[in-house]
Description:
By secondary structure, the chain is of the alpha/beta class. It has ten helices and five strands; from the N terminus they run ααααααββαβαβαβα. Helix 8 links the parallel strand 3 and strand 4. The termini are far apart.
Amino acid sequence: MALKAEQSERLGKLLSERSEQISRRWAEVAAAPLKGRLTVSESGRQTTELQTQLRKSLSEGANDLDSAKAAELRAVLTELSRNRARQGFTATETATSVFALKTALYEIGEIEKSGETALRDYVAWSALIDELGLFTFEAFSRAREHIITEQSEQLLELSTPVVKLWEGVVAVPLVGTLDSARAQVVMERLLQALVDTGSPYAIIDITGVPAVDTQVAQHILKTVMAARLMGAECVISGIRPQIAQTIVALGIEFGDIATKATLADALRHAVRRGGAELRAAKREA
């Protein structure tokens, strides 16, 4: 709902003439439900910036939030939402801080004593403030989704380390479920480690993988094939009795890929193979 020109003008005038009182009261009302997690002074800095930008937008002829002249106001609301999302507040708490302007305008503007015109203005102003609050709610949700996505990617990185166990041997100890997204991270990190270290052997340890089904096996096989294209031989370790039975029951075949019961067995196998190849190369030389 767009404000009429005269309603916009009167709101801008009130925000300008009673700026300090409105800002102070707005900050108090906004901080109250946050129960000390945001002080009145911290709340005041945020609401003052928003109040200043709202007054500026109104003076430039922005009668609603969708107006091109309200672009900077939307930017301030978006930044407020992002900051609140990073600080751990909820979308409701963020929007409520904006809605608190209604109380400040009603009390400082003495709407109850100002007659019918002022009451109609207040209803229109409230509709505009509702738009501001809903905008922050949506902006908060987008910001929160972005933060969650970033954190998920970081967790994938942290949960998929590639470690150098021996000269020429790197290992990827997997823990937890191996889905498509994580399998892609495993493959990328393993291949990069092979390039960085020049290792001819890679161990994929699945001791911490709770279950191996057809999908998990396919992810592992793709990683092994990708490593082979890089010139590295892969060994799969951590084949526990229960997983071995599951693999047989599902008819999954690892072909000529070496499999070992433990990471230690896999490391011995890789070191032994590496030593044998080194001796053979010396004999040929």
